[in-house]
């Protein structure tokens, strides 16, 4: 599926004229998303850590305090995993269980 097709499926909003929203810019990386946001032509919902990790002039990170919790899944192939991936999996499991690093 093309990026544009996937992006279009994320939108369920409708303009006042009854047509689906028109996608004006397509970002191919998180850095590009931030550039669009800083330019005033984009918005993004990011994880809480983005406030510190990606802080820069022209960006505001506004907490969404009334959003329902979201479930995130990590899918892995069965079998042997490289050590860095195994470490990442362990970090995910620790975070999910409430353990601190």
From TrEMBL:
Keyword Zinc attached: no
Superkingdom as given in the UniProt entry: Bacteria
Domain LysR substrate-binding stretches: 10-95
Keyword Transcription: no
TM spans (from-to): none
Keywords: DNA-binding
Protein name, per record: DNA-binding transcriptional LysR family regulator
Organism: Lipingzhangella halophila
Residue stretches in coiled coil: none
GO MF annotations, alphabetized: DNA binding
